[in-house]
Amino acid sequence: MRQEDFDLLQRLAAIMYPALLALCLLLALTCTHQALGQSSLLLVERNNLYGYANSRGKLVIKPRFHLAGPFSEGLASVSVCTDGGWRWGFIHERGAFITEPRFHDSKSFREGLAGVKLGEKWGFINKKGEMTIDPTFDDEYGVDFEFREGLSAVIINKKYGYINAVGKLVIPADFDFAENFSEGLARVIIGDKAGFIDRAGKIVIPLKYDRAARFSEGFGLVNVGWTRGKNTDDPGYSAGKWYYIDASGKIAFPTGYDFAEEFSEGVALVRVDGKTGYIDKKGVYVIAPRFDNGESFSEGLATVELNDRWGYIDKTGRFVIPPRFQDASSFSNGLAGIRNVTQKYVHINYIDKKGRFVMSQSKIEIGVLMGSVNCPTGER
Fold it and tell me: 8: Cβ–Cβ under 8 A, 6 or more apart, which residues?
């Protein structure tokens, strides 16, 4: 994720999933890739409706959905107009509904369960569409409503805790914020300090940091010096410095970075003095900071920005697809989304690893919000 997107997406991450899907597309499919890009079916838009195509560009599920998410575990969450207004349901890879569209919002399947919203509360369904965990959990900022490592963060009475796959609260709701588990650890916040707990709910890395980010490939991230409660242009604001830590909480490398991403494919994106580069797991630069922006490596390539154009580099830092796109996302299943803007339209297309055009993802008229078609009946 790019530095300028980081704060924005943290604020928006759990506020109105449909709006986030639109935002993700406008950010060149970055969110779609990072979250779920595990299916061979590609999300496409035609005339403000969404459907799915295969990797050769052939439509296999006709565009007929108001909004749609990527496939995860063989199912995708889609929105259609019903007598009650816009409602979400799930389809399989042949396009048929496995659950009728009756939910006010939904998340993608993970570990066999999907978060769904009925009214103002969230619960979980299984792949048969059965409500296995009743919708009793609050709809608040920052909860993914998806299971990771057998647990999901939930909100109860404005506090965060964790439930297991049968809905039992196994880590009490004592936190002011909590994130899902990764590599056996989860970021939590009490007051204005962040740290990490284990799957038993024990604080194993003290809550003493201004910010933190999840573990990946053996390393987590913590921030020291961030000015809470101020915008970036406020007097006295500081972004602090980001440090990598190991699972014991020890600082892994002495260097603090202006911005840093989690490790992916053995390397991590870092930013120093306005330039982006990549380090290995010893904290040594494998690609010196020389790019204006970038993303983490995926499938052996990373998208980077140079002189206001995006291209793709390998792990030596060599461009394998020259920087010629106005925006670009990471590769998933051999394809990536790129964006170019003309006077009237935003074009998002899929390319392969040689930079060749595969198919159009969407063509969005400038000034028209994606998914803005009115549902003529019922409440929203």
Answer: none
The residue with tokens 């992916």 is 264
pLDDT in tens, 134-144: 999 988 666 88
Bridge pairing between strands 309-313 and 193-197: unpaired
* 285 touches 320 (CB < 8 A): no
Contact 351, 357 (CB under 8 A): yes
| Among 106, 100, 129, residue whose Cα is nearest residue 118 | 106
Q: How far apart are CA 213 and CA 219, in angstroms?
A: 10
Give the span between the Cα atoms of 348 and 66, in whole angstroms.
18
| Average pLDDT for 258-275 | 97
Question: Helix, strand or coil for residue 76?
Answer: strand
CB 294 within 8 A of CB 305: yes
Total number of residues shown for the chain? 380
Say if residues 122 and 132 touch (Cβ distance below 8 Å): no
Amino acid of residue 220: G
pTM reported for the whole predicted model: 0.85
Q: How confident is the model at residue 32 (pLDDT cuts 50, 70, 90)?
A: very low
Query: Using CA atoms, how far apart are residues 306 and 309, in angstroms rounded to an integer?
Result: 5
**CA angle 222–223–229, rounded 5-degree value:** 130
Both tokens of 66, joined, read 């108001």
